[in-house]
């Protein structure tokens, strides 16, 4: 990982969905950082309200920028999941219209260039955009197996093939995830996302009913904008992987975030799935 | 394409699903070749019965080999689609058990090595395995647009990106198909097959309701065993592509087969989709 700039004393948190924004705020406060949350309405977890906050609609860009500026946040993190359909039903304000030329090329599918543009946009507005992983490195996947189960030799073979596949897909701005079972690529994630990919693996596994096989591999694309788009796994990923009959989950250590780590590991142990961080 | 050996006067046709086996028999007869069909029960189209034939269960390998030998077919084609679930419910005969060591490693997902093993198996039994495209080259995709609609510049850009992606996937024994829209990879085909991939694109297209965008690209893997595993498109592919809101379909000319060409082109014209063969 690159050297990390000193942490700010005050941090704006643009919070989208999931529990990661809450975890980031907790870690930041623990480390003595004042946080102010701009929570995206209808998307951020209402539990975020226990931190100083304002609710902002997705698309109310003028409102969002003013919120962050009024709260005197020179440094911000943009963190949490946004489901793609949410992007289609954006209610916009004048700030959005004003910045429309910058926004116009928002597209679906390869998100990487989109998210890089988001970072550039906020930087252009005078903010320093920090990565959630800089603020809360303890949320990153460590190396090695996390839970009770360790990958077998066959699983390691599938993991190597999977990570090689993700590397080959990187130039095409896809490839955060894939499923490899007994050396065969079952599924490749593109615009549908990891959960959808895992769902279809339920019907793709060959030796249904027998012992678990196959590995979900997850890693960022080689030039992915990790400041706003760190891959995340959590308990739901484990549930879908278990339903798909997989043996486990392998992630790039230090470059994938873990939501609800304790719950996720307990769930993996219960399902007898391994979860492992791999130094790639 | 490689130079093609002279056509035999007598040809065994191992017929699986779809209309391609029928088309191959028709072309063969027109060219003065005696055909004898070993039709896979429950999988081959019953219309195949108008050619001299026997029905053989999938898995009755002894029966299949005897059928072909009794019909004095030294050269054979193995043609048509086998849905993967069919492979799990195989009723086997003694011939299958006998040959089990050769068959044991049948796997799902990357089919390429499996199909190469099928060819080797029949060759080991003394048969010459011909490609359906050698017997009936008129079923191959020609170069250029087939129907009324031609690809736009944007479509050409998507096609180039799609074929580059398929080439990058080839070493992983997947990648017969992908969907690229406005430069972004929407979906990559692995074990689920083209139809399933197109189905999920219905919900992945960004600008729903507006004009069509995106291209399905199909090409064989670089070392695909074309004698038994030529990619095929047909009217159903066009239906799914239209439902997914795509602008068209691009295939590797000379290396993808077309089922029901006239019907497919009429359907594409009706849906205002282009279909084009590309020399890659």
Structure notes:
Two copies of one chain form a homodimer. The longest helix of chain A has 17 residues, at 153-169. Mean pLDDT of chain A is 86; it is low at 104-110. Chain A has helices at 20-30, 61-70, 84-88, 94-98, 100-103, 112-124, 132-135, 153-169, 194-201, 235-243, 261-271; strands spanning 10-15, 34-40, 53-56, 75-79, 128-130, 144-145, 177-181, 184-188, 215-218, 232-233, 248-252, 257-258, 274-278. Chain A is of the alpha/beta class and 280 residues long. In chain A, the strands form three sheets. A six-stranded mixed sheet of chain A has the order 6-13-11-9-7-8, sandwiched between helices. A five-stranded parallel sheet of chain A has the order 3-2-1-4-5, with helices on both faces. Chain A has a two-stranded parallel sheet with strand order 10-12. Chain A is elongated and about 55 Å long. Chain A binds chain B through residues 84, 88, 107-110, 161, 164-165, 168-169, 171-174, 178, 181-192, 196, 200, 204-206, 208, and chain B through 84, 88, 107-110, 161, 164-165, 168-169, 171-174, 178, 181-192, 196, 200, 204-206, 208.
């Amino acid at each position: 990982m690159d050297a990390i700039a000193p942490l700010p004393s005050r941090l704006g948190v643009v919070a989208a969905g999931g529990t990661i924004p809450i975890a980031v705020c907790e870690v930041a406060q623990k480390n003595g950082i004042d946080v102010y949350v701009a929570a995206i309405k209808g998307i951020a977890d209402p539990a975020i309200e226990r931190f100083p906050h304002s609710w902002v609609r997705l698309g109310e860009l003028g409102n969002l920028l003013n919120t962050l500026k009024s709260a005197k946040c020179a440094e911000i993190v943009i963190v949490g999941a946004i489901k793609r359909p949410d992007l289609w039903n954006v209610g916009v304000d004048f700030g959005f219209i004003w910045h429309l030329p910058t926004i116009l090329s928002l597209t679906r599918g390869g998100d990487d260039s989109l998210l890089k543009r988001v970072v550039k946009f906020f930087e252009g507005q005078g903010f320093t955009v920090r990565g959630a992983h800089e603020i809360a490195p303890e949320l990153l996947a460590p190396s090695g197996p996390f839970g009770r189960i360790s990958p077998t030799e066959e699983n390691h073979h599938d993991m190597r093939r999977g990570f090689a596949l993700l590397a080959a897909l990187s130039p095409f701005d896809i490839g955060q995830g894939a499923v490899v079972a007994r050396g065969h690529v079952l599924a490749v994630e593109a615009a549908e996302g990891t959960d959808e990919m895992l769902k279809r693996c339920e019907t793709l596994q060959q030796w249904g009913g027998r012992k678990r096989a196959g590995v979900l591999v997850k890693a960022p694309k080689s030039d992915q904008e990790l400041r706003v788009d760190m891959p995340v796994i959590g308990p739901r990923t484990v549930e879908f992987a278990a339903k798909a009959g997989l043996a486990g989950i392998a992630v790039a250590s230090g470059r994938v975030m873990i939501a609800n780590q304790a719950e996720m590991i307990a769930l993996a142990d219960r399902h007898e799935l391994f979860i492992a961080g791999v130094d790639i």
